[in-house]
């Protein structure tokens, strides 16, 4: 029961009142064009982690409905992530997008480093988790219109890890 409560708190570490990642200017990036994953990349096993949250698109919190993004603009997808196995924050993340109609997969890279005092406090005050915020600035113009499952992948202790908390994005 205690572990269920802890996981619920981790997933809810967003009060909706602030941006998910306040990244320093040095880590802000131009919009990344997603690249389609190769068969080799698709075959890499991913271990699920729960010390994370994909929270917002363009500053708006995810809801049960898909977030909508125009193909003609850019989208900033943000949240927080830690590597509990290593006791730190991964330096980079990949946002993965899986097409809901044909399961084609794309990735776009992003960086961590956003101040997240709420995450630090939630995870026991570990100073290593103070900058767990991440942001991926995405150029959706090369993606086919449709609805995509969105999740984050990083290289963690023991191999590739994924944070998939059921988020979806519709590109119009």
Features of this protein?
172 residues, mainly beta, 11 strands, single chain, disordered N terminus
Please indicate the percent range of residues in DSSP E strands (runs of 2 or more). 35-45%
Overall mean pLDDT: 86
- Major sheet summary line: 11 strands, mixed
State the order of secondary-structure elements, H for helix, E for strand: HEHEEEEEEEHEEE
- Flag low-confidence runs: 1-12, 14-20, 24-28
Q: Secondary-structure blueprint of this entry?
A:
Elements: H1 2-11, E1 35-36, H2 39-42, E2 47-48, E3 52-57, E4 60-61, E5 67-69, E6 75-81, E7 92-99, E8 105-114, H3 117-122, E9 133-138, E10 146-156, E11 159-171
How is this structure best described in words?
The protein is mostly beta strands and 172 residues long. It has three helices and eleven strands, in the order αβαβββββββαβββ. Strands 1, 2, 3, 4, 5, 6, 7, 8, 9, 10 and 11 form an eleven-stranded mixed beta sheet that branches. Strand 3 and strand 4 form a beta hairpin. The radius of gyration is 15 Å and the shape is globular. Mean pLDDT is 86; it is low at 1-12, 14-20 and 24-28.
Please outline what is shown here.
With 172 residues, the protein is mainly β.
